[in-house]
Each structure stands twice: as structure tokens, then as C-alpha cells.
Amino acid sequence: MYLTRGMRIALRVITAVVLTVVYVPLVVVVINSFNSDRTFGWPPAGFTGEWWSRAAHNAGALDALRTSVVVGLLSTAVALVLGTLAAISLQRYRFFGREAVSLLVILPIALPGIVTGIALNNAFRTVLGVPLSLLTLVVAHATFCVVVVFNNVIARLRRLGGDLEEASMDLGADGFTTFWRVTFPLLRTALLAGGLLAFALSFDEIIVTRFTASQSTTTLPIWILDNLFRPNQAPIVNVVATVLVLASVIPIAIAQRVSGDPSGGRV
Fold this sequence. Notes:
The protein has eleven helices and no strands. By secondary structure, it is an all-alpha fold.
């Protein structure tokens, strides 16, 4: 596609403006986590590591961090199993209602978070009579984490085709052996990318968490929201927000690098 010099300049300017709007506020949060001024005057009057030290010893923030990690790992594990099974069944087999099932698998990530949260809250408390707990939170997060894994795995399966699996079956391997020796090694990078993205998605989720977690279950994003406007907590909130940004960016960067593996995951 040919672009004139004016169009190239316009695209660069628009890209620069968009990136500035998105990332400058994040940079401000990171800088303010070292700001010695409690009121966050700008430019910073000085820099200090005091807020990082206080955050490292803040029991509430540490408990919330542990909860977020546990929920993220558990929901990612569930999503890896269910998302992989769904992708294999929908890509490798033909059956009545296949397209409808595919739509239902993808739908949770397209729905507004508040709709998902209200629906799950009603399902747990009214229909099933299950009290909100860490378990309901994991189930809620898994509903949208499954989509991330599903999309990564089914995209890889479409690229690979089924020739190697058919060859394995022709040589006498059963279904499980074919999956373990052929399919799984080819899917490893897609599973890693999907798992990292699912963990990042779960780690910073706040809307669904509000509706499906018990009052005693506090994740890191919920802790930030609850303490954002409390006196003397703003500097620590900036530190925790910086940690949350890093915890989200690192898995996504790794997942992007892995999913772009030029070998296509072949071993």
C-alpha cells in the first residue's frame, strides 16, 4: 500500500499523540511513587524511596498482592485446561451447533464487565445459593480467561493443520499418545502466551471482582480503589499502582514475544 509523504507524517503524528495520551499518565504515576511531596506537586520537589519501603511493609497491600497472585494462578490453570479442550474440539471436529458453541466460548470477553459481574453474582447467590468466596472469584475470572487461551490455541491449531496428528494415528498411536507426543509440543508456546495473557487479565480485573468476591477477599486492584482517596495513603497507592503496571506489562510482553515465535511452535 502506497502512502504519500503527507499521509505518513499524519499517521506518525496521530500515533505519537495516542501513545502520549496513553503512556504519559502511567509515567506520572511511576514518578510520583518516588515523589517526596505528599501532595504530588509538579514538578517533584525531590525524590525518595520512603513510599516503596512503606508499601513493602503494608500488611493490607501484601495480603491483596498474595490474593491477586493466587486468584490469577488458579483461574489461569482452569482456563488453560478448558480453553485448550474447547479449541481442540471446535477446530478438529465437526458437529451440529459448532459455530454456536464457538460464539458462546468467546462471548464472555465481549460482554461489559459489569454485566458479567451482575450475572455471576446473581447466579452464585440466588440460583446456586453459594456464598461469595475465593472460589467464586476464581470461577468468575476463569470465565473470561478461558477466551484468551482459546483464541491463542485455536489460532495455532489453524496454522498447524492436522497432517502430523493424522500421521501419528496412522502409525498406530492412540488419541492420548498423539496429543502428548505431537499436539501438545506444537501448542506449548501458544499455551504459554495464552496463560501469561490470562494471568495478566485476571491480575488487574476490578469490575467482575467487585461483584464476585466476598468482603474479606481483597485483590490488589480493589485495595488500590479502596485506598485511593484515604488520607496519607496516596503515596503508597502510587507505589502499588506502579507494581501493578509492571505485573501487567511483563507477562504481556513475554506473551507477545512467544506468540510471535517464527518457528510456529515446532519442536
